[in-house]
Design a protein that fits this description.
By secondary structure, the protein is an alpha+beta fold. The protein contains 3 helices and 14 strands. It has one domain. A hairpin with a 4-residue loop joins strand 13 and strand 14. The longest helix has 18 residues. The relative contact order is 0.17.
Length: about 240
């Protein structure tokens, strides 16, 4: 698919950008303190908070199947092995763990599930841009990296991050409500490019993967979504269990 790039951008009747560069002077803006302190997790998550336990040798689980270039997901059923009494992510099956951590009122709510289609081979990614509730959304191949990513974004007051072996590969802080940056457009663009490269390093080659990720928690469109209270079957309009 060929994606066109804008040669010029006009806003409020003025030419503001040409060939990828802003050509007007931007004024500085101040923001109220409350808008800069919205990461209210209550307590930082640990690996134990992300464990998905089972006493069986195998389990039948619900999986969110993403569709590249689409806002839709599929609700699929998968039979998986249980290892050390846990259901874990499996890069070989393109099965990543996903967690939604409530970040507005410190409730401690964490919804857990699995997602297929991103292609992650290692590491974890996280974002506070997670429509519509914009909680802390984390996807990963192991609990340690997922916790590391979540904690780093908490200290950054929100944003997007990619990590591996508990090291930051790329990060875009979004301290204004966890959704917007105080940095210049150029710096934000550079950070997004580094994030894109980091996602590819981890195995994901989707186009516009950030948007695909951010819609996993949008619990109003088909078929299966995840919230801080767990999985939602948006066809049946009800919460459903991860393990069937």
């Amino acid at each position: 698919m060929n994606w066109a790039k804008a040669n010029e951008v006009i806003a409020d009747g003025r030419l503001v950008a040409r060939q990828g560069k802003i050509i007007v002077r931007l004024t500085k803006t101040t923001y109220p303190d409350w808008s800069m302190n919205t990461m209210k997790l209550g307590s930082l998550p640990g690996c134990d908070d992300l464990r998905i336990r089972s006493q069986r040798e195998s389990a039948t689980i619900r999986v969110i199947q993403i569709i590249e270039g689409s806002t839709m997901t599929r609700h699929i059923i998968e039979e998986v092995k249980v290892t050390d009494k846990q259901i874990k992510a499996s890069p070989d099956l393109d099965l990543s763990k996903v967690a939604v951590i409530e970040r507005h009122r410190g409730t401690g709510n964490i919804g857990l599930g699995f997602v297929r289609g991103f292609g992650f081979r290692e590491g974890a990614v996280a974002s506070t841009v997670a429509h519509d509730s914009h909680n802390l959304l984390v996807i990963g191949t192991n609990d340690e990296d997922m916790v590391f990513a979540a904690r780093k974004l908490s200290s950054a007051k929100g944003g997007m991050i990619a990590v591996n072996h508990q090291k930051v590969l790329a990060i875009l802080p979004l301290p204004i409500a966890g959704l917007m940056s105080t940095a210049s457009a150029g710096r934000v663009s550079d950070s997004v490019a580094k994030l894109t490269g980091a996602w590819k390093t981890l195995g994901c080659n989707l186009h516009n993967a950030f948007m695909t990720m951010s819609l996993l928690s949008l619990s109003v469109i088909p078929e299966l979504r995840i919230t801080d209270k767990g999985l939602v079957d948006t066809i049946a309009f009800k919460k459903v269990d991860l393990i069937m």
